[in-house]
Amino acid sequence: MNKEKLSEEYFIPGEWIEIANKILKNKGVILVLGATDTGKSVCTLLFANYWVKHGRRVGIVDVDMGQSDLGPPTTMGMVVINKRIKCLEEVSPDTLYFVGSTSPINYFLPTICGTKKLINEGKKKGAEIIIVDTTGLIKGYPGQTLKEYMIDIISPCHIIALQRKDELEHILKKFIQNEEIIIYRLSPCAEVRRKTYIQRREIREEKFRKYFKNSSSLSLNLNDLILRGSYYCSGIALEEEDVRFLEKVLMIEVIYAEKIWEGIFIIVKGRAPEGINDFFQIKKRFNTEKIIITEEDKYKNLLVSLDNYQGFVVSLGIIQEVNFKKKCLTIHTPLKNSKEIFGLKFGTIKISLDGKELGKIHPGEL
Ligand SMILES: Nc1ncnc2c1ncn2[C@@H]1O[C@H](COP(=O)(O)OP(=O)(O)OP(=O)(O)O)[C@@H](O)[C@H]1O
Ligand SMILES: [Mg+2]
């Protein structure tokens, strides 16, 4: 079969070259879809290298925050290339967007929003063709919803559908009638290697380890930053007298509490109380139905993103210490100063300083 060597390791099959040539004429945004381990990322690399070889400026947008090739896990990345690359991991991304989770489940909004923002950045940087590599989440209602809305928001001119059988058809059938989208169905290459859950986790941990290799402690004054992803600092701190009242009712040390728009947000030391009977007094005193109690420990080792004013990542960090009252945070980060930082997003996974995944935080817990 006619095939061409477009990277050190991989050949592009002849059938794919025909498609690459068709897209070369049209330009625009190209979406690569497929289940896990169907060769989406290698396919993205091969197509991007082919178009670069034919003189195009190519944007690669990697929206797989779990097995991301551009940038560390929990982020989605974009790079514009004008020469062939060996692998995506060797290039440093132009722009990163923080999702904060290693899976899009429960985080569809940041995933969709980041995808759109990264494509826009690629266009601004002069990319003529932008190819978007995606996660393997295609199954069931979540997979279908995520991919359908992703197609809606990015309006690709071409979809490259890598499927072993017909596993993408439930998504593709919604767009078959759309004359502005051309769908190419491809079979995964026989050489595609599958990764187990453990291997995926090890790959992520190795990437985190590398990312934080030359990190040190950095102190941040949270009063200077826009915070996202936590109730903390979204309302008004309670007075000492109110905090003492909460401690008496809950019979636990309260480190900090805030009146937030939907109720009362309380951070406690140790395990948060579970019974809701005592909460009646709290509800009455603060005239609210909603009480959110979280544990101080939830913030320890939490991954955060330090963002610029456009909402893109300047650097990631791991929380070491929070002084909730003083609104001071110490993080472990490769960033040496906080000059460029405009905002901080709390992530949803905890990692050790050497990159080990320690657990997850559920939506609305912080
Ligand atoms: N065309 C190819 N030729 C040789 N090996 C390949 C080819 N495509 C994929 N592989 C092998 O299979 C592995 C998995 O491929 P790839 O990472 O592209 O899959 P994926 O669908 O992006 O996976 P994920 O679901 O984790 O995102 C690659 O690391 C590579 O070793
Ligand atoms: Mg991939």
Structure, briefly:
By secondary structure, this protein is of the alpha/beta class. The chain is built from eight helices and 20 strands.
Written description of the protein model:
Helix 3 (108-124) runs parallel beside helix 4. A hairpin with a 5-residue loop joins strand 16 (302-307) and strand 17 (313-323). The chain is α/β, with parallel strands linked by helices. The protein is 27% helix and 30% strand. Adenosine-5'-triphosphate is lined by residues 10, 34, 36-42, 64, 67, 136, 189, 191-193, 195.
Write the layout of secondary structure elements.
Elements: E1 3-5, E2 11-13, H1 14-26, E3 28-34, H2 40-53, E4 58-62, E5 75-81, E6 95-98, H3 108-124, E7 129-133, H4 140-154, E8 158-162, H5 169-172, E9 182-186, H6 197-211, E10 216-221, E11 226-228, E12 236-237, H7 240-250, E13 254-260, E14 263-268, H8 279-286, E15 291-295, E16 302-307, E17 313-323, E18 328-333, E19 343-351, E20 357-360
Parallel strand pairs: 3-7, 3-8, 4-7, 8-9, 11-19, 14-15
Antiparallel strand pairs: 1-2, 4-5, 5-6, 10-18, 12-13, 13-14, 16-17, 16-19, 17-18, 19-20
Bound molecules: adenosine-5'-triphosphate and magnesium ion.
